[in-house]
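for the writeup, i need someone to sanity check this before i put it in the appendix. the sequnce is what the collaborator sent (i think, or maybe the updated version? ugh). structure was predicted straight from it, no edits. if anything looks off just tell me and ill rerun, i have time this weekend
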Amino acid sequence: MTAALARRMWHQLEPLHACLYFSPQANEEAAALGYDLSSRWPSYFAWRAAPLGAAGPELVTATFFGFAPGMVAEHVPAVWRTASPEAVLDARLRAVDRTFRALFPERLASPELAEAAELAREAAEHATTAARPLAAANRDLGWSDEPHLALWQAATVLREHRGDGHLVALLAADLDPCESLVSFAAVDAAPEANFASRGWSPREWSAARARLVERGWLDASGKATARGREGRDAVERHTDALATAPWRALGPARSERLAELVLPLVGAIFEAGMLPTQGTLGIGRIQVAYA
């Protein structure tokens, strides 16, 4: 039950975090910092890696996992020459503040949002951060006194906590970064073309596919076999199990209350059409990526 609850809460909270990567207000803040918006990746790497400090390409590649090392090196450490991590962290809170004020201004001062922030913060404070660098780095930033920003910070800690655990599950399944994407596409989680943005060359993709065919995870056409589907299901079950600590601490009733409280906020995000309708994560219409 707790694993199923962990998955449900991921679905409920992920859109709150994901606004950072897609809102026009965030794009304006990124442009003000000097980032080139002809591609989403300079600001993405800056927004997400800033809690790690002026991280180099090895660290970002390791913690983001699914991106090809060469693609990461195109942007990191160059993003820190455009703006310091400290400036990026300040700007991302401004971006979230402006985004939330545009999406649901009438709810920012509501007791319901304050209650949601308290519950989400409590859950995030019970997220185990051992071997979870992105969750730990975000929790190190402390908490805003503004409830809507504290809610976003908590959602961010919780999604990175789950994401860090997901990488553990992938490694336990003996999937390297490119294989993790190939196997995910093979179960029709998203069209294969959607993974091109992660920077793997056709040769690297084909080699990863060949390795998975040899292991019996894929058939000759590149589709998942029964073994491959069970392997991916096992990764998801392992991910859910590793994400349960915050929700065990909060308990089912208060977790359900948090889901209820954030539902109107998530609805407003979807109604705004802010998030892409197709991508690489596959939780309903929520289409962003851990890695």
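Residues 283-291 have pLDDT under 50 and may be disordered. The chain has 15 helices and no strands.
thx in advance!!
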